[in-house]
Amino acid sequence: MATNPVQFINQVRAEAAKITWPTRREVITTTIMVMIFASITSLFFFLVDLAVRTGLTEGLRLISG
Fold first, then answer.
1. pTM score, two decimals?
2. pLDDT tens digit sequence for 6-51
3. Distance CA 20, CA 18 (A)
4. Which of 25, 39, 60, 64 has its CA 20 to 30 A from that of 16?
5. Cα dihedral 52, 53, 58, 62 sign
6. Domain regions of the chain by residue span
């Protein structure tokens, strides 16, 4: 069933009225949490990369003599 443009605009407005925007405090809290988790994740992958690189370097050093 096709709706005319006026009905469509009215439906869009009705749906847009249902949107609840986060408060400033929620946005700040969520942003801080994302930054903390991104930092923890980057530290984890840095340490894993360091361990793998060190293990490979030492392993190749032992093999090559």
1. 0.65
2. 999 999 999 999 999 999 999 999 999 999 999 999 999 999 999 9
3. 6
4. 25
5. positive
6. 21-64
- pLDDT computed for residue 1 by the predictor: 63
What's the burial of 2, exposed, middle or buried (CB within 10 Å: 0-12/13-18/19+)? exposed
- With a CB cutoff of 8 Å and minimum separation 6, the contacts of 27 are none
The 3-class SS string of 14-53 reads HHHHCCCCCCHHHHHHHHHHHHHHHHHHHHHHHHHHHHHH
Q: What is the pLDDT of residue 26?
A: 97
Asked if residue 36 lies in contact with residue 44, where contact means CB atoms within 8 angstroms, the answer is no
Note whether 24 and 32 are within 8 A (CB).
no
